[in-house]
Amino acid sequence: MSLIITDDCINCDVCEPECPNSAISPGEEIYEIDPHLCTECVGHYDEPQCQQVCPVDCIPKDPNNVESNDELMEKYLIITAAA
């Protein structure tokens, strides 16, 4: 399951540099997470780094992009192989 950034985002800029997959980018109003690049930090860290640094707790799991840990690891392997 990838993560999403909710409307509670205050555009504090701390999440974007923490993402090891460059899945976070500025949107028109708030930061956005590309579900094709988000692995919830599987393969890099034990916990999603964006969630760890977010001061307003606005980065939940995206119920519209449900993925297992195995699927997230597969996505991680594809992303890192392309880098």
From TrEMBL:
InterPro entries in alphabetical order: 4Fe4S_Fe-S-bd (IPR017896), 4Fe4S_Fe_S_CS (IPR017900), PSI_iron-sulfur_center (IPR050157), YfhL-like (IPR047927)
Domain 4Fe-4S ferredoxin-type per the UniProt entry, residue ranges: 1-29
Superkingdom of the organism of origin: Bacteria
Record key words, sorted: 4Fe-4S, Electron transport, Iron, Iron-sulfur, Metal-binding, Repeat, Transport
A single GO molecular function term of this UniProt record: 4 iron, 4 sulfur cluster binding
Record-level GO cellular component terms: cytoplasm
Transmembrane regions: none
Name listed for the protein in its UniProt record: Ferredoxin
